[in-house]
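worker-3 :: picked histidine kinase
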Amino acid sequence: MEQHLFVLLCITAVVASFFVVIPSNYLQHLPPYINVCVTVFGVLTLLLLAEARRGRYHTTALFFLFLALMNLIWFPNGASDGSLPLYFFCLLMYLPIFFRGRARWLPLLLTSIDAAALMALELRFPQWVTPFASEQDRMADNVVGFAVTTVCCAVMLWSLLRSYEKEQTRLVAVNEELERVIVERTAVEGALLQNRELLNSVIDGTTDAIFVKDISGRYLLFNEAACHMTGKGQDQVLGRDDREVFDSEVAAAIMEVDQEVLNGNQAQLMERKLRAGSGEQYLVEVIKGPLHNKEGQVVGLFGIARDVTQSRRMAEELRLLNEELERRVVERTARLEAAMKEQEAFSYSVSHDLRGPLRHINSYGSILLEEFGPELAPEARGYLERIRTSSKRMGDLIDDLLELSRIGRSELSRVTVSLSELAFGIGCKLQDAEPERRVDLLIEPGLQVEGDRLLLELMLENLVGNAWKYSSVRERARIELGCCVLGDRDAFFVKDNGVGFDMAYQDKLFGAFQRLHGAEFEGTGIGLATVKRIVERHGGAVWAQGVVDQGATVYFTLPRV
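worker-3 :: tokens ->
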């Protein structure tokens, strides 16, 4: 504020000197000496203004320059009869604005002494005073002096009031900011207090022992779990170091690790055996790390200890259990391999040893029919035909059993398989075998899955073959292969309009040797069991729906491409 006001006063003094005082003095016919002094004052004030523009404010120089001008023109300008006493008001207002503390009283005393001395000299030597030429000149001089004084005082007063308003506004803003900061600080302190209480609750509520030490090793924090683990109370630990809390041997080991953490400025994980207050020994897992202040300096360390006695015991028991399980798995694998070898031997026996007697039965039955057929009674020939039919059916059962056993042992060779193409080929073979039948084979194109081609072909041969067989009672059969959405999954289906089945027996449908129809339909009862095993080996599922004399639908899921 003072700097801005100083510039305004310099400008006002220069303008008043050159454009008001000097012209009025000239019109009043005052001595030229006065105008010379005022001119020098104006020039010097211009120099002070130029200095102020450069950031150098000579407020004291302007005061003494103005006081010197007052003394130089006091007597030539009519002394106390003129306007000069009015200018002393400018000086008296100037002093409290630009001077502070003790520096204010000396100029004030000097101004008072100077004014008193001029008045005393005027009284003592009235002949020194140059009177005005007329009363009108004196009045004009007083008017000019009053106007200039008023302008200067108004400038200073306006600047003071403006500064006061700004300061008042700033203080109001600062006060509001302080109130906001106080409110925020109160809220922060409340939040910090709440967080501290929450943290203390967590620290005291956890089952892990938590402690904090200063740089000298004295305990600053020791929670309830640590007290329970060591058998020491907080009054026995806080403010003390390890030598005052533990045995000398244990304390030395703990302090050695603490020193390594502090020197290395890095957390460490270790295990240590301790003895509780009851004398029971237990194993604890401890992590220790350095504490830093805002400057990053190490000011202490923290530690978290957990009783791992039970977990280590359980880990050891689990290790022993795993070893036992591995041993049992090895034994079970050996027994399984032996069982598989026995099954392979059984399959070989079924495939070769049982087929020999069946071939003999068929051969001797055929010889009897060929050589002694005419001599046999019709009833005997019927018995021989039944023997041949039964032995052939038994051979088919053996073949199906071997095929079912092979499906469970064979390794899958997964490739992209087109079910549409396989079904079309199977349908063509069936139609060639029975060209007299009228069958509509509807196959949805583009049905591709990922799986073993040979097994999937065998699966479709059974499904399409069953549909072909059980729809033979229809004058115009209909067999359909397609894909649909059931619930949240895609499913393939083979549908026919044949004899169907009773849903009450659906749980027997996919079992081996389970037949829901009589001898009018040939078969061994292995087909759908084979289908189920193939689908399950591919990770899918199979089920069926049917209505008696209205057809059946077999659904199955397979991994799609």
